[in-house]
Amino acid sequence: MGFYDERILPHLIDYSCSVGQVMKLRSQVVPKANGTVLEVGMGSGINLEFYNPDTVSLVYGLEPSEGMRRKAQANLAKSSVAVEWLDLPGEQIPLSDNSVDTVLLTFTLCTIPDWRAALDQMKRVLKPDGELLFLEHGESPDEGVCKWQHRITPGWKKIAGGCHLNRPIAELIREAGFEITELENLYVPKAPKFAGYIYKGRARKPQQPS
Hints:
Strands 3-2-1-4-5-7-6 form a 7-stranded mixed β-sheet, with helices on both faces. It has one domain: Rossmann fold (3-Layer(aba) Sandwich), CATH 3.40.50. It has helices at residues 3-16, 20-29, 66-71, 73-77, 115-125, 143-159, 169-175; strands spanning 35-40, 56-62, 83-86, 100-106, 126-137, 179-187, 197-204. By secondary structure, the protein is α/β, with parallel strands linked by helices. Residues 38-134 form the Methyltransferase type domain. GO terms for molecular function: S-adenosylmethionine-dependent methyltransferase activity. This is Methyltransferase type 11.
């Protein structure tokens, strides 16, 4: 990665992903995590303050960006939960099958190049009774907004770390074989609609017949 990706982009992403309304949404999702957690795209550790140390034993932070891991040091220093870095992209999760209780995705699925491979890996490491928690932005159902998302995305990806504005998040999660058990959609107040359509919810592996 170049100077922009490692020295400038982490600050831009961290700022845009930590504005007030976004932090409020994070505070509604992250505390639902329990047990051993895999946070895919941990970034600068924005979510750490919202983990409940009474229910979370360990957080694996998957983050391939050295710039983001460096920026996370301050949040790690004051974290109330134990964190272990995994220095690999989402398509390569170095954990055993059925080894985590919760997978957490917050504003990450939009940037992973091979989303299907990444979701397959998440499903592989998630325990049969585990849960995928997600808070993502993506494709809007509003035709006018959606058209702009498709127009803007090619250029947007170049300056925003590969971020896609137009991924239909719920559809991708279902295509990967997860069952969505809870889903809420909304626009982030005061955010540009092309970047602020939210998918917030829970999913699990298909339950095997007994």
